[in-house]
Amino acid sequence: MRKAIQSKLYRKFLFRYLLILAVSGLLFLLTNIIFLSNTYNRLMDNTQKSMAHMTELLDTRIFDLQMLTLSVSRNTRLLPYQLQEQVAYPYDIAKELVNLKAPSANLDSIGLYYRQSSYPSLENTIFTDTGMYTPESYVRLIGHNRIAPEELHNVMDKLKEPVFISSLTQSNEEPGKEQVLLLLIPLDGTPYSSGIMIYKLDYSALLNNFRQVADNERSLIAFDRSGTPIFYLKGHSDLDWRRLALVVDDAKMRIPGYLLLQETSDKQQFHVINAIRRSAYNQEYYVALTISLGIFLFSLILGVVLCFRSALKSYQPIQELSNRFSGFVRDKAEGAEQDELTRLTQYIEQMRDESLHLSHMMHNQEILTRNQLLLAVLMGKLNVDNTSETNRNALDKLLGKRNTSSVLVFMFDDYNAKISKEPLSEQWLMKYAICNVFENLSGEHGANYALDLAIDNGIVGIVSWNTEEAGRWEEHSRAFAEQILAFMERHLALSLSCAVGEPQPTNELHQSFNSATSLSEYRIFAGKQSIITPSAAAPKIASEAAAGTSDVRQISLLADALHAAVCSKDSENLERQITELKARFTFMEDASAFRLTYQQMIFTLNQLVNNIPLSHREAIKYKLDALTEYQSKTIEEACSNLFEAACSIQDSLGEDSSHDRLYTSMLEYVARSYMDCNLSLSTIAEELSLTPSYITRYFKNKNGLPLMQYVSKIRIEKAKQLLETTPLSIKEIVEQVGFVDENNFSRAFRKREGVSPSQYRSVRLG
Predict the structure, then answer these.
(1) What are the tens digits of pLDDT across the range 379-391?
(2) 596 and 474 part of one domain
(3) Secondary structure of the chain: what % helix, strand, coil (to 5)?
(4) Statement: residue 550 has pLDDT above 50
(5) Which of 160, 290, 556, 692 is deepest in the core (most CB within 10 A)?
(6) Domain for residue 54, yes or no?
(7) Is 333 exposed, middle or buried (0-12, 13-18, 19+ CB in 10 A)?
(8) CA pair distance 195, 198, nearest whole angstrom
């Protein structure tokens, strides 16, 4: 780690990651600040809403009492002249007041007082829901001596508007006792009303209403518009109401440790002061702040650790690559100031320059690549004596000065059945694996190189033998091939066969390649995983030379027997005939005789194709044509393919196809219209009044080929006939057989026949 930190490149990576972390951290911090600000604002909004609700609640209670007073003023039973008649019956007056009190909440007592009355019986008397009292007895019995009688007299004499009298303002106020709150309202709402309503509010119920919306950490006091304290709700704090009352006179006053919130009602102008302990009020905010800071610090520490690790991860691959090319140092002083990435970039630039130079040389044919050079030697297209000095030097580096070299051809045993169905990339990987095994296992025998360009179904290996091993080249080749075959079978489940070419000088290596490919034909008798050397194939070659030509009569008898077995419609008889044919093939041990006999069997089956229904004829014909071109790897494979084709013909013989008019119509229409270059699946479907999808499925089930592929086959067959029998040019033939242009025709012809149209005509016409 210390060495990495000392690296300039590592510090660059670290700085970039830390910069990203810093930007991310600032964004995260900004998000937290916004979140905390929203949390604080939410707390303030909730508190203000709570204050407004409490003030509105108090305002509503007092307003209800004012409405009650107006209703009392309209009650004729409580007018002075009625009261003076009922003084002797105080219970009737009390009952009437009880009825008025019942709908009002938070009322402890209700009373009526007339000042300056013309009736002597009403003077100095307060009528209540519990009886009649003088002001002194009212204060003593109803007010529990918490309010001075003189203050009550003074207020009642001078009352012009609603006034509160609270025991909080009394000098004899005793802590711990329940407070008394009186509300005096002129009876008819005018300043000079003779009647006065006296309401004793239920102080405990009023406080309980406010405790429902205020927690225990709050101290709350309310003042009327004249500054008289109405009630005081004391929380757990040690604040006295007098200290809070100072805030009314000085709105900017602050009390340490408390948050002061004020609210004024709209109707009665009540002024409410709410003192909240800051620690309790900000608890939710402090919790959110603590969590946010914890997450931020944890993220910051984790981010720093990840920055160091990420910088190390980014630095290590470049350091490893740079160490591999440590020899590339143009100048020690310059290299000491440069970081690994700069040095690696310079190395890549040098490789690019060398690659461009090499490509230029190859373009000017000054030098060939390894595979190009070896492939030219194998094909006999490169005369080593006449090639350039560069190519001769390259060939010497590959094969050395050794006089003896051999070609080994490794072939996939199941190429057509398995390997050819794999994607080209998978086939290349399999060939590449064989090349690696070839080069790794053959080092003890001589310089060696492998090519996968010479043949499609395998690779070609070249071994340039050491002088001391040259005499035992065939023995070493067999042992070497056995190693490769066993390795591929064990690790990759690939079955290979090997053919060893005769040793030749380097400049005659194409002869060794030719001998190896011709020996590989004898694998059809030797079977899979065979190793065919010149000495192993010598008896078979001698047998072929002694036989001269194949026994024509024997071939004819075998063909007649196969013909009879197919026509017999007896599958067991056909299977016995194929088994006998397999034994005859194995006994021949003659590649040329086998090929001739095998082709004769296919020709015999072709003759029977004309006897089967038209619906199956084209599919079986196509299968036999493919079988003619297919190069079987073993006798078992050849006989298996032959038996499958014979069974298809045997199953189709005698089937009635007269009912298959649709298929016949398709074939006839294609035969009439194949020369039209606009012929397509849609035109055929329109002609037959069917859908293209139905025609595609139907024709493929009947013929085995897609419809347009069958059309292409007919066109190619007609073109072959014209190439062989007429002097027409390629362009004229294209127009007659229905291809769009010469390029399309050439591609289709080469894909089917393996050669171009011109080459086909040259071969056929000699």
Answers:
(1) 777 665 556 777 7
(2) no
(3) 60, 10, 25
(4) no
(5) 692
(6) no
(7) exposed
(8) 10
